[in-house]
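LAB NOTEBOOK - FOLDING QUEUE
OPERATOR: T.R.
BATCH SIZE: 2
PURPOSE: Compare the predicted structure-token outputs for two unrelated chains run back to back under identical settings.
PRIORITY: normal
REVIEWER: second-year student, initials M.K.

ITEM 1
FIELD SEQUENCE / FIELD STRUCTURE:
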Amino acid sequence: MQKKKFTVLFVSTSYPADNKDWRGRFTANTVAAISHNDCIRLNIWAPPGDLPENVKDTSIATEAEWLKQLMVQGGIAHLLRSRGPFAADTVFKLLLYLKRLYKREKNIDVAHINWLQNAIPLWHSTTPTVISVLGSDLGFLKFPGMKFFLRHVIRKRKCIIAPNADWMVSELQPVFGDIAEIRSVPFGVDKMWFNIKRKPINREKNKWLVITRLTQKKIGTLFEWGKHLFKNSFELHLFGPMQENLQVPNWIVYHGPVSPDDLHAKWFPTSSGLITLSLHDEGRPQVMLEAMAAGLPVIASPLKAHIDIIDDKQTGCIVSTPKELEQALIFLSNPITNNNIGENAKRWIVKNIGTWDDCATRYINIYQTLMSELI
């Protein structure tokens, strides 16, 4: 018996322009994986980029151009963090465009909205909705009126709120648990990361990677803690776009933005591991998942998002002081220890995260739950 097709409207303000664009890569991977399912008609509203052939772009020309410029400016979350109240005009424009989108896209069965604020213009509809939530969304909930407006929107429909990490469930449950189901949906990892064959690390010259947007909170304590560590046996390579005016110390090799292909072919196979001392509102950092899938140990700050992934001294190291960072670097400079920790990390990703196809299956199960509750 052939399954009945249903139409999903997928909304995101982040999407890569092409295969070499690092921005919004997780969105493209999610869309591609969901589009493989024969029972889904997938419509998307997102910045312009390469879409799968069977995915329909629902943006009109003015919206597409505006979304493109929004990506150039770093995205809505970056603008809110950097400009604060001065980003109000951008927020208003986004909500206006979304309101028009939701009014004209009437023949849909399920709305899949990325980020809580993008659900607010659903005010006048009752469409069943899944809302994907990242770590930055928890910061948005602190804005005046945000909880009130979202609760009004959510209670009018069948809704599942889907944070991409388990630790966020307990944060969202007291706010929305009485009117929506809170169900963790981890993002997946591209299969190419699992296939990396790491070369034995050079004990005399450990090469560590930091891959992040360059903001003060994303860098965290790295510049302060690392200045006396990375000079002889350890070298540090920093990758990512400069989003704030930071002075990169001369003991760091700064490369600028990097493509996934370069990380896969050149950097991940030959490096000792990944470091993130971020103080940012993280949900579940995708680059950490990819590094772990490739068998790389990760040294990370004690954020909830990091502790949720890393079992200290088993799948990586959690560090809270400069001394602990030094000890972690020495601990993982042993090739056997480094390899064992990396393999433990890969096994954890296989068991708990899986591929983007696994992620798509989790979302499709949510769509089907929302649809079945209407029958």
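ITEM 2
FIELD SEQUENCE / FIELD STRUCTURE:
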Amino acid sequence: MAWWFKGGHGDPLIDVDARWQRLLVDWFDHWLEGADNGVMKKPGSVVSMSPTDHWSQSTWPARGASPVALHPHEGGRTAGALRLARGTSG
């Protein structure tokens, strides 16, 4: 399961609604407690563009996707941003 969101590194509870917390609890219940709660039948990935704009896919990576090299850049909300082009330091 992958949950992608625009926030910084850490728990997306600030940027995402309660669906993230419910999914996280279901995942822990399944893998740590052995609960047969159907979490493994849910989408393999969720992309969250905003607190109300989500889309999901059954598999990850997406069918038809191809690898892309990302490079760190200064800036961003936490440790930096990722971009397609190489940056220069300093």
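REVIEWER COMMENT (ITEM 2): The first strand starts at residue 2 and ends at 5.
FOLLOW-UP: none requested
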